[in-house]
């Protein structure tokens, strides 16, 4: 059964090569099928068409294909075996962006990939615009729209080569896991490229994992493993070692009931925005007003994308980092509701994502934020008073120090904030046991409770106040003793009283 699945994924049929010395179709198919996957070239069907505005007639199209074929032979090498369809498919046209994978399901199985390329002219600047999409027959996957521009017809061969390299995505088999990563045997990786442009797989190449499941009726179901990517870290011969970036703990698990095998397909970002719609899991209503952030995988700088609109929709444009990013949806600005990796520009189709809005957790998050703001204000106010008291003590302005101590004493004590925080935590704990449909004490909320508790204990201690009060008290005692004995008694210096200042005395406010 597994052999049948492998045959489906790697089956290579009859193809005509764009070369003068192309082998006979039957012999090419038989010779290629006998070769291991890493030695097998990619058989590609090119459907090239042009709009009337582009002024690419039959003669120019023929010359374009000849010049492009020479460039492929020069820069790519034997890893591509391209057959140019004549006439091209009627699917090539202005509706290329709206094309669905189902419309190409009856493509010739003799080809691994089908390239649909359309040439038109931009009416604004009269430049030629070349757009294209790739369909992988084995994975039944339609790639994103890729776009290139050419200044004149003379630039078309080079532009067509650029669009071809943008479209091309390698295929591979997942042959194992090692050190937390995946090992891929890449098709055509052992074929010597004509130049660096023809390298099939390199560091940074991104794959999406696929599971090919054998059904009872003899058919094969191709399932994409959702929210999972394999990013190439190194290449050793024909084997690519990839890091697993996934929203799941074990996305490549072998614990599947039906016979299956794991494969992978390269994916590249296109020039299309990523459209997402978040809905609430219980009633499928729009999740509006939630903040979405992104971070280039694995640990790039955080960036805020925006806020979901009233329909729960948000658009993620391809950024400067053309690769996998980790998206996180936040409630209350900090409570994570969903976190998953994705590649902006991977597809133009809208994705609907169901979330649990965690209303109780978000409610306590807002309360904690309000309490934290009060604590931060108190830390700043205390810091200002402590600096003034230090100046009064250094200048021996005891009346001014006494006035500042009285003002300091009127501030809320740290126990006030500690009791409020404890009441909130006890209430959240109680409601977490009572709640049945929504989580209350999430990991993020528990961490926020601990952080705020540490902030109160570390920055709202009364050590500085007590130290300055002791200085003032010792000064008063010294003055009283002077009156009784008539001799001057030295008072404790502020430096002696504050030899071990409180953590908040000199620490910066958070």
Written overview of the protein:
The protein is an alpha+beta fold and 510 residues long. The chain folds into three domains: 2-266, no CATH class; 274-356, Carboxypeptidase-like, regulatory domain (Immunoglobulin-like); 360-506. It has helices spanning 2-10, 25-33, 58-76, 156-167, 359-394, 398-409, 414-434, 443-459, 463-485, 494-497, 503-506, and strands at residues 42-50, 80-84, 113-121, 128-136, 141-142, 146-150, 171-178, 181-186, 206-214, 220-224, 228-236, 239-246, 260-266, 274-280, 291-296, 303-307, 313-316, 325-331, 335-342, 351-355. The strands form four sheets. Strands 1, 2, 3, 4, 5 and 6 form a six-stranded mixed sheet that branches. β1 (42-50), α3 (58-76) and β2 (80-84) form a beta-alpha-beta unit. α3 crosses α4 (156-167). The longest helix is centred in the C-terminal third of the chain and has 36 residues, at 359-394. The two termini are 62 Å apart.
């Amino acid at each position: 059964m597994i052999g049948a699945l492998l045959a489906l994924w790697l089956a290579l049929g009859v193809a005509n090569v764009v070369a003068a010395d192309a082998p006979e179709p039957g012999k090419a198919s038989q010779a290629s099928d006998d070769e291991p996957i890493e030695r097998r070239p990619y058989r590609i069907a090119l459907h090239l068409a042009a709009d009337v505005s582009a002024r690419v007639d039959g003669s120019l199209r023929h010359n374009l294909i000849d010049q492009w074929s020479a460039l492929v032979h020069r820069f790519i090498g034997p890893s591509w075996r391209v057959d140019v369809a004549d006439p091209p498919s009627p699917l090539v046209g202005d509706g290329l962006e709206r094309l669905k994978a189902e419309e190409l399901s009856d493509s010739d199985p003799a080809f691994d990939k089908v390239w649909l390329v359309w040439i038109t002219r931009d009416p604004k600047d009269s430049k030629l615009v070349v757009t294209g999409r790739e369909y992988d027959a084995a994975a039944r996957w339609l790639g994103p729209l890729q776009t290139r521009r050419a200044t004149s017809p003379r630039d078309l061969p080079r532009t067509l080569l650029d669009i071809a390299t943008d479209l091309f995505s390698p295929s591979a088999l997942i042959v194992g896991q090692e050190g937390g990563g995946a090992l891929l045997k890449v098709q055509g990786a052992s074929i010597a490229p004509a130049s660096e442009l023809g390298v099939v797989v390199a560091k940074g190449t991104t794959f999406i994992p696929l599971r090919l499941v054998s059904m009872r009726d003899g058919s094969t179901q191709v399932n994409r493993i959702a929210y999972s990517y394999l990013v190439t870290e190194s290449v050793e011969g024909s084997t690519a070692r990839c890091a697993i970036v996934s929203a799941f703990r074990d996305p490549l698990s072998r614990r599947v009931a039906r016979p299956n095998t794991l494969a992978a397909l390269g994916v590249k970002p296109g020039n299309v925005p990523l459209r997402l719609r978040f809905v609430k899991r219980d009633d499928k209503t729009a999740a509006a007003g939630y903040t979405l952030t992104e971070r280039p995988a694995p640990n790039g700088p955080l960036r805020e994308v925006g806020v979901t609109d009233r329909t729960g929709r948000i658009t993620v444009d391809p950024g400067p980092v053309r690769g996998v990013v980790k998206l996180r949806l936040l409630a209350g600005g900090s409570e994570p509701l969903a976190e998953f990796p994705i590649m902006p520009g991977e597809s133009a189709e809208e994705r609907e994502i169901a979330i649990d809005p965690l209303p109780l957790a978000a409610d306590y998050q807002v309360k904690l934020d309000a309490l934290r703001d009060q604590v931060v204000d108190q830390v700043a106010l205390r810091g200002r008073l402590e600096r003034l008291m230090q100046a009064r003590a250094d200048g021996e302005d005891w009346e001014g120090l006494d006035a500042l101590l009285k003002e300091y004493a009127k501030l809320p004590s740290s126990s006030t904030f500690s009791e409020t925080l404890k009441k909130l935590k006890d209430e959240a704990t109680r409601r977490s046991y009572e709640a049945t449909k929504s989580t209350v004490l999430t990991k993020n909320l528990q961490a926020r409770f601990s952080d705020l508790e540490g902030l109160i204990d570390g920055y709202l201690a009364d050590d500085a106040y007590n130290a300055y009060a002791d200085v003032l008290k010792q000064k008063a005692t010294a003055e009283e003793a002077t009156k009784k004995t008539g001799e001057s008694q030295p008072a404790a210096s502020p430096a002696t009283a504050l030899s071990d200042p409180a953590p908040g005395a000199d620490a910066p406010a958070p």
